[in-house]
Amino acid sequence: MTRALILGGTADASLLAAEIARAGIDAVYSYGGRTRAPADQPLPTRIGGFGGVSGLADYIRRERITHVIDATHPFAAEMSRHAVQACAQTGTPLIALERAPWTRAPGDNWIEVADVTAAAATLPETPANVFLAIGRQHIAPFAAKPQHVYTLRFVDPPEAPLPFAADVIVSRGPFTFDRELEMMRARGIAWIVARNSGGDGARAKIDAARMLSLPVIMIARPELPDRQRVESVTEIMQWLGHRACLGA
């Protein structure tokens, strides 16, 4: 009997949850707990961490999980590493639903960097309006450049003081090209810092930056252990032993 664990929190994970629910597969959807009001899912849902590798391994055994699907954000490196180790310990099949990264298109003005610290160091010394599209867990290094006027966008209002002055937009995506263009023009954005998340849901800001000829400091994805990975829900359903046309 199949019992799947979806490590979720992304739009792709929600699409997968809907398809698995339609197929009648026994599954649990797990949120990491970083968002205070996560989107509802059509599957039994748990919220919060597992307590490291050992906690995840214990959960897999206790809940009789037969398949683990890592559909977390491409930058949720710690959770992905824990999944690889826990599944190895328990002998549980693991697959990652991982969207392809964005690639540079004609007209893009990207400055590619390895991590958030390098991104902060790349910003100019001259004060500028900067859109930090990187999530609230990764903004601390930008306190080293307090001269800039920062715009941040979060799903939830920040619970603690930010390490620098910033204008916070509280909104949940996806965001359209026209909306991103309007926001950047209205705020006079001159620089964008983004993580190479890939996919369509967050791409509008990259397309808007190209239209406005804005420089984008693009943070590369973290390196992860080798694991089986696919880019579509259809491939996950095939992996689970169901027909690719299920739900069509």
From TrEMBL:
Single biological process term from Gene Ontology: cobalamin biosynthetic process
Query: Which pathway or pathways does this protein act in?
Result: Cofactor biosynthesis; adenosylcobalamin biosynthesis
Asked if Ion transport is a keyword of the record, the answer is: no
- Keyword annotations from UniProtKB, A to Z: Cobalamin biosynthesis, Oxidoreductase
Keyword Oxidoreductase in annotation:
yes
Specify the domain of life of the species encoding this protein.
Bacteria
Give start-end of the signal peptide: none
What are this entry's molecular-function GO terms? precorrin-6A reductase activity
Q: Write the Enzyme Commission number(s) for this entry.
A: 1.3.1.106
Entry's PANTHER family?
Answer: COBALT-PRECORRIN-6A REDUCTASE
> Can you name this protein?
Cobalt-precorrin-6A reductase
State the organism of origin: Bradyrhizobium barranii subsp. barranii
